[in-house]
Amino acid sequence: MKKVQLTETVLRDANQSLMATRLPYSDYEDILSTMDKVGYYSVECWGGATFDSCLRYLGEDPWERLRKLRKNLPNTKLQMLLRGQNLLGYKHYHDDVVEKFVELSIKNGIDVIRIFDALNDFRNIKTALEATKKYATKNTVASGCISYTQSPVHTVDKYVQMCKELQSMGFDTICLKDMAGTMTPYEAENLIKGIKDAVGDIPLILHTHCTTGMAYMTIFRAIESGVDVVDTATSCFSNGTSQPATETVHYALEQYGIETGLNEDLMNKVNDFFKPVKQKYIDNGLINPKSMATDSQALVYKVPGGMLSNMIANLKDMNALDKFDEALLEIPNVRKDLGYPPLVTPLSQMVGNQAVVNVLMGERYKQISNEVKNYFKGEYGIAPAPVSKELQEKILGKGGEPVDCRIEDSKRTGKEFEDAKAALGDLAESEEDIMSYICYPQQAEKFFKDRRAKEENCVKYSITEA
Ligand code: CO
Questions:
Q1: Is the dihedral of CA 294, 299, 301, 303 positive or negative?
Q2: 78 sits in which H/E element
Q3: Which fold has domain 5-283?
Q4: Residue 145 belongs to what H/E stretch?
């Protein structure tokens, strides 16, 4: 019997897409032992924005959360999303920090590390891959991930080439990550068939979003074309900007004799558990009904929904909402000038903001954002296609060339970890603390100070009691 496995995303991407990753651990702890028996390929539960959200908004230690997840999901693969050399932030960290982060992630309970680079510059995911291999346990899976986008240079051949590269680098699985939910069934079929022909047996995963309403059709076509794993979210946390519904996909596949291996009874219990959780966040406004709707704009403008709402917010701030249409038309131009980067964070914001600035100033690149300047300097990696020579000259001067970010990384002193350790002093209680601080210095420091104050209060309290 043909088998397709499902990754459940409710704890990470569904939570991130629908409610800005604000789901506290305590809200779902009671369902974890049930989730452990459903039979998912993996549970995506960490990385992405969960780390930032834990420290910044939820007053949770992200490492502690991971250890609790590990304890309560002993039989399920725990999965995280890692932005290669950027870890969970936006700057390039030194190799030893990347290695340490991966080592600690595995040590604290992660099995599947899905590693991507916004530009698909695979030099930026090499260190994370090597660290994953170095610290791998028998359950560890290194998943090489491609940021999917549509542009004149992103052909099936280009994606096949990328997959071959990931395979030869030594990844165990390959994931296509369609963050904007714009992959069509037709594209999925051509891509998956092309990739399967080229890379053979390596398991292939499709990650998409329902944002544009395309996802169910696309994953179905992808499955018919040979994809091995798809990402879904328990139905009350599905659709809209989230993933397709786990239960729905399961029922549809069963009828075709495609086995998912999921236990229906338990799968439904998981959904029943999350229904009131979701309602609570609709009631308090954290889940915006807009995020639950289908928005086909992205198919028209070829930009992710989140990027559009970001642009609208920017224009509103500047009292220039009437320039929205003009700014939209400017996006493809900016994107072309930048060599067609995939529109994923942080590039989506970079392109969107520059398009807005170009339109507001009434002249293209009269003002250039620091992010765009750094992009041209080579700080993000290599662009998928040649960038505008004119703009490059404007930013780097005549004959100026971008630096090789990986060579620049290796030139650095490698003191990031030691410096962070020294800066924190005895506020840091573990290597994990130091890593939190490196990723999010202000948020982590505040969290550690609050934690210290709480501990001191507890001591005081117990002395009074005695
Ligand atoms: Co996603």
A1: positive
A2: strand 78-82
A3: TIM Barrel (3.20.20)
A4: strand 141-147
Cβ(128)–Cβ(84) below 8 Å: yes
- Of residues 90 and 99, the one with the higher pLDDT is 99
Averaged over 347-374, what is the pLDDT? 94
* pLDDT (average), residues 12-36: 96
Range of weakest confidence among 157-161, 354-358, 451-455? 451-455
CA 183–ligand 1 middle distance (angstroms): 13
Give the 3-state secondary structure percentages of the chain, helix then strand then coil, rounded to 5: 55, 10, 35
How far does residue 158's CA lie from ligand 1's centre (Å)? 22
Ligand 1 centroid, distance to 31 Cα (angstroms): 23
Distance 81 CA to ligand 1 centre (A): 9
Domain range annotation of the chain: 5-283, 289-396, 416-465
pTM tops 0.90, yes or no: yes
Distance, CA 6 to ligand 1 centroid (Å)?
14
Burial class from Cβ neighbours inside 10 Å (0-12, 13-18, 19+) for residue 9 reads: buried
Does residue 374 carry a pLDDT above 80?
Answer: yes
| pLDDT over threshold 60, residue 466 | no
pLDDT surpassing 70 at residue 228 = yes
What sections of 29-155 are H helices per DSSP? 32-35, 50-53, 62-72, 95-108, 123-134
Instruction: Mark 269-282 as b/e (b = at least 16 C-beta within 10 Å).
Output: bbbebbeebbeebe
pLDDT-based confidence at residue 413 (cuts at 50, 70, 90): low
Q: The CATH number of 289-396 is which of 3.60.15.10, 3.10.450.50, 1.10.3720.10, 1.10.472.90?
A: 1.10.472.90
Rounded-to-integer distance, Cα 182 and Cα 113, Å: 24
Confidence of residue 334 (pLDDT cuts 50, 70, 90): very high
Residues with CB under 5 A from ligand 1 (ion): 13
> Measured in angstroms, how far is the CA atom of residue 288 from the centroid of ligand 1?
18
C-alpha 207/C-alpha 186 separation (Å) is 16
Q: Which residues does 342 contact at the CB level (< 8 Å), separation at least 6?
A: 118, 119, 120, 147, 148, 149, 179, 384
**What one-letter code names the amino acid at 190?**
N
